Model the fold of this input.
Amino acid sequence: MFSERERERYKRQMMLFGDEGQERLKKAHIFIAGAGGLGSPVSLYLAVAGVGTITIVDMDMVDQTNLNRQILHFDRDIGRKKTASAKEKLQEINPDITVNAIDVKIDETNAADLVGEADGIVDAMDNYPTRYLLNEVAIAKEIPLFHGGIRGFYGQATTIIPGTTPCLKCIFPKAPPMEVFPVVGVTPGIIGTVQANEVIKYLLGTGELLTNRLFIWDGMQAHAEEICVERNPACEACGGMVKKTTARKKK
Amino acid sequence: MTVKIRFFARFRELFGADIMTDVVTGTMFTSLITTIAKKNPEGYAAIFDEKGAFREFVILMKNGKRIDIADAAKTPVADGDEIAVFPPVAGG
Done:
């Protein structure tokens, strides 16, 4: 059921997917790993779309060097916990959703518990070791992982449905070296929005997901393309998984 | 015969987007990429290690199909092949 305020807030999108679709979003719980460059647009767009529960996790404080791209955080937030800043902004932009902001480093001891009963995981991380952990949790819980990565003017995204599509380890078996990566804010803006769009479609059960395809964005050329990706039968993370008959959890 | 090599992300910054090149029959994947990469020392170092082997994170594809870097030295290229070379993009 929706309040009058919710009906007004979501009026223009309920023209697309009706009460039923909006109800699906409202009942959903999405876990966003990272409140940085990707986590900002992902969380903002999921919040305004009315995803009922958003859990966002980050361990960092807002630094001035974040502000060219991490649009959840403002100049006044420098020195604050990103989670505090994120919760404040998301609740202000949509007071009708629940936001859990958890200030912790995601590691192998807590990843599964942090994700809890979430319906999907958004990869908004800046490193592959943590991404691989999220990949394992997604596989264990049989929930999707919405992957995104950016560098400079380049970005990539794919939607991983464990057991059905290649997992992150199938596509990228080895992590690249860590670096302080160059980036302009529009790149995570574009890729994060693609990820949020995937989450919304997945929850609605509509459209074609970015599955078995790696979306590649070249901002310098203003050119997007995709590369087919396949499961690796010998994948150390998902190799033994059997394809599920129903990829999407019905709520 | 002619093949097209496509670079993505950081590799595209170093080599440009696409390179069309003529190769002789029997040219292997690794030797082709090595020859192209050696024209750009910084690019070469991004793709290959000190021993001349592909860095372990490099992704290679031929006509949309993944080529394991361990098999690249014995995988021949064919006329019209489209080869993609890219690193995982890590930032967020």
Notes: Chain B has three helices and five strands. Chain B has a mean pLDDT of 95. The CA atoms of residues 11 and 86 of chain B lie 6 Å apart. The longest strand of chain B covers residues 2-7.
